[in-house]
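Example record

The entry below shows one chain as it appears in the dataset: sequence first, then structure tokens.
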Amino acid sequence: MKTIAKLGASTLVIIVLLFSCKKADSTSTADIADYKTTADSTAISSSAAVVDKNSKQKFIRTADIKFKVKNVVKSTYAIENATQKFGGFVTYTNLQSTIHDQLKTKISQDSTLETTKYTVENNITIRVPNTQLDTVIKTIAKQIDFLDFRVIKADDVSLKLLANQLSQKRSASTEKRVEKAIDAKGKKINDIIEAENTLANQKESNDNNTIENLSLQDQVNFSTITLQLYQNETIRQEIMESKKDSAAYKPNLGIQIIDSLKTGWYILEAIFVFLVNLWPFILIGFGGFLIYKKYIKKQ
């Protein structure tokens, strides 16, 4: 009895140890998965994507990210929904499949197994409010299975905006002086024409500075994110109906004999019709033969 009790106790200890090991393994796997997700989110996040509301500087922020996903189509929908949710919009998307290999295997008399190896990828360009750039990037990170690279840039355009504004002020001042000179009396026509040309150039320069400032301000307000998504090679198999060759549609021997007899009869009819069409020549020839036989042969 003591021996049985010892064996039972040993078995119980072994079972407890095995259960503890399995639990530890599952916990370790879960920790690794959580760490991977956290690492991916941290990897593509950057201080360049954070906006300081109190700063007077103007930054154009852009992000360029390439990564692998589980399913390109599902991730595309998730990214598009997140973009709309945070006040952005999609400016470009190119979802396509590339076939690498295609094999057809005949598995029965009327069935063929078609095996296709292909990859799916998508290039997406989105624009989001600059205050939401970091949030959108972290949301996109949830789709990452493997990160190839991420590049985030923040270009300071404060001085460029200021330079354009100062240039606009100078142009406005010059325009007023030129307009006064044009309105002044006693000027020669050549001077007026030259002043008009100068005024037109000043206005064009002012317009160009205005348009450039609007473009820069738009890029400051909305950051641009360029994404390259791809997934592992996928294998698709489909059973298709086999195409019959021409021999399968060939008629039997009896039908071929009947068709041959019909064809021969049609040929005979055609020859007869052809000869009937030649009756004038036949008549002339027959008449000539009779004349030859009656007169020329007797002489």
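Notes for this example: The two ends are 153 Å apart (CA to CA). DSSP finds seven helices and six strands in the chain.
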